[in-house]
Every structure is written in C-alpha cells, then in structure tokens.
Amino acid sequence: MRAGTKLEVSLSVFGDEVFLPLCTSFAEKAARAFGLAEAEALALTLAAEEIFVHLCKTTAWGGAVDVRCRSGVYYVEQDFSFKADDFDMEAFNLTAKPSFQDERAVEETGLLIASRMVDRFTLSESEKGLRLTLIKHKAYPEIGEVSLPPAVPLVEFLIRSPDPEELKIFSRLVSTQYAAHVVPEAFHFPGKLVDMVLSGDAEAAIAVDAAGHVGGGLFWQWKSDVAVECSGPYLFDQPEGSTMAQALVDACIAALGRTSAVGLFVPYPTPELPRDYFEVLGHSRVNKSDGTHADVTAYYRHLQEDLGDVVWVHPSLEPFLRHEYQRLAFVREMRPVKESGETSPAFSVLSTDFDRHVNAVTLRPVRLGHDSQEIIAAHVQMPFREQVPRILFEIDLGIPWHSHFVPGLLANGFHPCLVFPYAGKKDLVVFEYSRPEPLP
C-alpha cells in the first residue's frame, strides 16, 4: 500500500531503577541511530528517564517494562508497555503545573517534565496492559530567504512524482504564493516534506513541462489506513482555463485507486480545486493573517463503495450526526454511549497539537476522567489563547469513551462542524471552539 522504511528496536527489562542506565542508554542510542539530532535525542532520552523512574516507583514496580523505539523517518516514536491497574497521567496535561507539596506531587513532576520534552503522546489499553507512546519530531530548518525559479505558464505538461529537489521547490512556491490556512505545516520545512514522502506517509504530484518548469502540484497524506487528506491543487501563474488542476486531482485519484483508500477529503481547499469532483463535507472557520476570520468549505470524495459502519455516539451529538450522515449518504449504525456509574480515573488527559503557522491548536482525548468538563475549560482558558485563538477538538467515534467528552465540549463553547469518514479508528468528528467576545 505505502512504501517507506520504518525500523524499530526493543528492550525488555524489569521495573527496577537498577536498569535505569540501560534504559536511558538504549533510548539515546536508538534516537540518534534513527536520525534525531543531539538536542532532540537528549529531550527524548530525558523523557524516557522520567517515565521509567516513575514506573519503577509506582505502577510497574518489579514487573516487566517493554521499551520500543521506532523510526518514522521524520520522527522517532518510543513506547513503554507495562501492566498496571491505573496510570495517573494528569501531569501530561498542558494545564498541569509542578508541585512539591507531597511525595505524590514530586513523583508526578517527572511526568510533567517528560510531557514537555516530546511533541506528542498517546496512551492505549489492551488485555496485555498499557502502552504509552512518546513522539519526537526531527528538527528541520525553515524555508528562510531563498531564490525561486520563475513560474511560467505551461501550455503542455505532464503529471509525475517529484524528485526531492523538485519537492523542495514545490513547497517553497506554495508557501510563498498561498494563504497560510491552505498550506500544510510541513511545507514550511522542505526537508521534512521530503522525509514524509520518503516514509510513505505522504505523496505528491507535480505538473512539469519538458524543460522541467514546475507549474503546479498536489499533496496528499494518509490519516488512517483507509482515509487520505489532500492539500491543493496549487497552480503557479497558469493561464485561465488551464486543465492542470483537474489533471493533478485525476492523478491523485488514480494513484489511490491502487490502494486500500476508501475516501479522500480536502479540509482546506485552494480556489483551483475542481469542486464538481467532490461533495461538500462541511464548514469551519480559520484565522487570517490580518486578524479576521474566514469560513472554509471542506470537501470529500468516495473512492470505494461505502458499505457502512458502526459508531459510538453520545445522545447530545446524535442530531448533528444523523443530519450529516443522511446528507452525505454514509450508512452508519449509531450506538449510544451512556455512563452507568462505572469506575473511571479521577483525572482526564488531553494531548495538544500546535500549528503555529495558522495560530491553531488541536486537542485530542488521551484518557477520560471525572473532570472531563473541567479539563476542557482549563485548556480553553490557557494564556496561549491570545497567540493561538483557534481551538479544535477531535473525537474518534470508534473509541466509545471519546464520546463522553461531548457534554463537556458543548458546555464549554465548542460545536461540531465536520465529520471525516474513516479518518481514525472510525469516523472523526471535529469540534470548533467559538469564543465569547471579548476574550475572558
């Protein structure tokens, strides 16, 4: 389906601090072997040290701890797998603050340090126990001031995959000629874009003439095993009536037709997107560079017949989903989720994914606790709001407990705006925060 070399190494030890030097050495050497620079490798190693020490002192003391390090080409992923009745991750919240009031608070400070050392983290549960995954991205230089080849109208062109240098040129042209909200974050780091394609997580197509002039291009990346997100098409000084945009989209659809992809969505289309190729998926609001907002229409195209699916839905979200599924002709069995007094952790945990080029942050559930509504409110009220005014929240309808966050989202000013089919374990629902004016 997708190409890419993603190597991994693993270590299995007991949860005893006598193995701490072995664990940290493994983390550092694996991170450097997989391409992290010294600073990033040190950050991941420090995170690994704090996690392992915490496990030795608490939930996994004396038990087996499996550590796995995996190369994602443009990032490094590190797993800790262990058995535990519970693993308190409150310190992983962006809203958490260090405390030295008691022994428990001091122990959690290590987790707080670990959470700040990595770019993303996830927690998954199975019959075998818990798996905490830390993700650290490689550092890449931004575009900076560069001279670009002149864009020229192409009367004749062909569509093909770019080589690495052409891909860098393509990214620089896009970053300098298009509005920020239609430019993926990776385009500001040409080397990262090259590595994303090398890894197999993304692909690109460009339109070139016989001399090699780049007239336009298209970029798409896998969001799940069957869902693909498309960016573009981007055209550079092409004449009115050019068929280049359609040709680029056709090339993307043809390439995906040989894969397991079920659907293609375009959350932030360019003006050149051939709208008649797609269905309207929904609407969202983005920040513009002048401080104002713009409404954006997202699009979707089926690549295979939708055979239907089962999703987990909170009753308060059902009217929105029923309307969207009927409008889009998605066959879904909506199963309700409802709390029935079952035991759950005291604290919820959210991950945060910043995109500073468009001043936005996306929140995702990591763990559900009794304070789900309060933790959402705390993230909305964080000081970064002035610099990052756009807040999104994603829930996966294939993970039942995600839907328990819905009441807290609605109570804190979020509203559902988009459904991305099959973009997670099942469909992803995106909530958008509508802040009151003036800012609190």
- Give the helix level as a range of percent: 25-40%
Q: What is the CA–CA distance across the termini?
A: 48 Å
Give the spatial strand order of the biggest sheet: 6-7-8-9-10-12-11
The CATH class of the largest domain is Alpha Beta
Proportion of β residues?
Answer: 25-35%
Structural class: alpha+beta
What form results from the Cα inertia axes?
A: globular
pLDDT < 50 stretches: none
Radius of gyration: 23 Å
Output the helix-strand order.
EHHEEHEEEHHEEEHEEEEHEEEHEHEE
Number of strands: 19
CATH architectural category of the largest domain: 2-Layer Sandwich
Can you tell me the CATH topology of the largest domain? Heat Shock Protein 90
How would you characterize the largest beta sheet? 7 strands, mixed
Helix segment count? 9
- What's the domain count? 3
So, the CATH homologous superfamily of the largest domain? Answer: Histidine kinase-like ATPase, C-terminal domain
- Average pLDDT over all residues: 87
Give a written overview of the molecule:
The chain has 440 residues and is of the alpha+beta class. The protein has 3 domains: 1-139, Histidine kinase-like ATPase, C-terminal domain (Heat Shock Protein 90); 158-295, Gcn5-related N-acetyltransferase (GNAT) (Aminopeptidase, 3-Layer(aba) Sandwich); 305-440, Aminopeptidase, CATH 3.40.630. Helices cover 25% and strands 31% of the residues. It has 9 helices and 19 strands. The protein has helices at residues 20-33, 38-57, 103-117, 164-177, 190-199, 244-256, 318-328, 372-380, 406-411; strands at 8-14, 64-71, 75-82, 120-126, 129-137, 158-160, 202-208, 214-222, 227-235, 263-266, 279-287, 293-302, 309-313, 332-336, 349-355, 360-367, 390-396, 414-420, 428-433. A 7-stranded mixed beta sheet has the order 6-7-8-9-10-12-11, with helices on both faces. A 5-stranded antiparallel beta sheet has the order 1-2-3-5-4, with helices on one face. A hairpin with a 3-residue loop joins strand 2 and strand 3 (75-82). The radius of gyration is 23 Å and the shape is globular. The model has no long low-confidence stretch (mean pLDDT 87).
